[in-house]
Design brief:
The protein is mainly α. It contains eight helices and five strands. The longest helix has 19 residues.
Length: 160
């Protein structure tokens, strides 16, 4: 749903104004072409996020329900270093941090089963190699999302 950079802006504008004409959206969303806006609105109507009325485009119930998720992603990005530079949006910033195939799975498992030992984590994620898991855990530790606790025993015992 957030694979395209324009959808969050369209949702934001429709939420903010209630109903937006095509030209309202075009003027409010910097850098979007008519073709891109048209394609995104069509896709969002197919996904039942917006609907077209005589006055313009408005969010459906599903689109309205999605707005708090966007707000949470924005707040997360702000708390974790998002500065808004380079034309990057908060959604893109968040996807860069946690959007990889393995990273999101690791975070989900640790959220539900923390603390977890390395081998338990690897068994929980089908197809991930030892090397990739170690790299992803190191990355998550570097950016402050995961804490590695070494219990200092003779046989290695580390929890994440």
């Amino acid at each position: 749903m957030f694979a395209n950079r324009w959808k969050p802006f369209i949702i934001y504008e429709c939420h903010k104004h209630g109903i937006c004409s095509f030209s309202d959206l075009k003027n409010a969303i910097e850098g979007i072409s008519d073709t891109a806006l048209n394609m995104q609105l069509k896709s969002m109507m197919e996904d039942n996020l917006v609907e077209k009325t005589l006055e313009g485009y408005k969010l459906t119930t599903k689109g309205i329900d999605l707005f708090p998720v966007l707000s949470s992603v924005y707040e997360f990005a702000i708390r974790n270093g998002y500065t808004g530079e380079k034309g990057n949006c908060a959604i893109s910033y968040t996807k860069e941090l946690i959007g990889s195939k393995w990273t999101s799975r690791i975070l989900w498992i640790l959220h539900n089963q923390s603390p977890t030992r390395f081998n338990e984590l690897q068994k929980s994620i089908e197809g991930i190699s030892h090397k990739v898991l170690k790299e992803k855990l190191n990355w998550l530790q570097q950016i402050g999302f995961v804490i590695r606790e070494d219990h200092g025993t003779k046989s290695p015992w580390v929890d994440y």
